[in-house]
Specification:
The protein is an alpha+beta fold. The protein contains 15 helices and 17 strands. β14 and β15 form a beta hairpin. α12 runs antiparallel to α14 and α13 runs parallel beside α14. The chain is rod-shaped and about 135 Å long. The N and C termini lie far apart (about 105 Å).
Amino acid sequence: MESGKKQSTHQKVLRDSEQQFRLLVENVRDYAIYMLDLHGKVVSWNAGAQRIKGYSAEEVIGKHFSMFYTQEDIATGLPQYELESAIRKGSYETQGWRVSRDGGQFLANVVLTPIKGDEGELCGFAKITRDITVHQNAEQRFRQVVDSAPSAMVLINTQGVIELVNNQVEQMFGYAREALLGKPVEVLLPRQMREHHPGLRQKFFEKPLARPMGKGRDLFALRKDGSEFPVEIGLNPIETIDGTKVLSAIVDISDRKQKEQKIQAALEEKNVLLSEIHHRVKNNLQIVHSLLDLQSNRISDPVAIEMLKDSQNRIRSMALIHQSLYLSNDFSKVDLGQVLESLIPALMESYSVDQQRIHHELTLHSVQLSINQAIPCGLIINELVSNALKHAFPLDRQGVIHIGIAYIKKNLVSLSVEDNGIGIAENVVLQNTGTLGMQLVELLTDQLGGELSIKRLDPTRFEIRFWQQA
């Protein structure tokens, strides 16, 4: 009597639970959701169960749920084991092969939960089954792709636990795959990086985007033998049914770093060599300058002396370019403005100019030129300033020489010399003067691929425009 009453109560609880259950899950199609009685017989069946397993409710109600298991699992007592595990643990989750109505098998994720009455007595079970065959196949393909990747690949979850590694990880780090699975990813990091890594990982999962790890910083990894090596790491968020994970692609850049160091060492050697070359060229030009100075002291012909002085000034302008390169950290470019700051005062001194009578003004922007352009520019300025000092201010005439270098627009350079001297008469044909100076100016302008423009008076102005070489 008492037993029948208790069974009736259980059935009522199960019925009430079933009604609530049905309202919630009847139309769910992605999950097979159904209820079992105390003995494992099916008492409810939703649309998802019919779609996944192929049975209608009429075909399964009252049948034991072991009908969905393979013969091998039935023989080992797996259905009963799952019921007992659910009772013992309060819930039981597993994965395994299940059988559908047409005899086919599918991989299922199963959650089995006991249903209890008001007094805590067991009344039945709720079972949720999900077909994960497609997911499993996709996961297998994903694992195959990861395993065949040329880089070392490590998959970790939000807790930083390693869930997947490929063959390249084993080779790179010296660990067997089984030794890494389930371990914190920090085991692959040098000790000095481990303390801060969990915080960085948390920030990544807060905003998971594909990006390089530690951009702008040198990264190192730790092998099983304790040796560290430089790496580059790419982070790629992966969305799974278990949530977001991150797939790290790791590249050992030890060889690249060694090559970079060799290249840097070779570059430093080249720079030392270039510096020495420019230093020696400058010294040799100064020797030639001194020899010309000695020679000029031995002759009395004013024309010859002036020609030697012009040659000395030309040599000085070239020597200043090489001196600038010798003192620079960049042998590919010369700041012409800095060179002219030294060249112009030297020219004024060379011609013994009374700077109370003739003074100079400089408007020199920082224009970086290759040596192939800097030397012609230095020689052009030397000729034009020398010409102004010799001819623009006769008979103690006072005046100003203005020298400028600037960008007119991007990469278009203007080089100019102007004075407020007596000017150039209209009947003077500069190209026919026969002077070496003007011939040099025209020749060097052509060498620069530039254009020369001349204004004869108020003020007299020579301007060369040319394109800066890349």
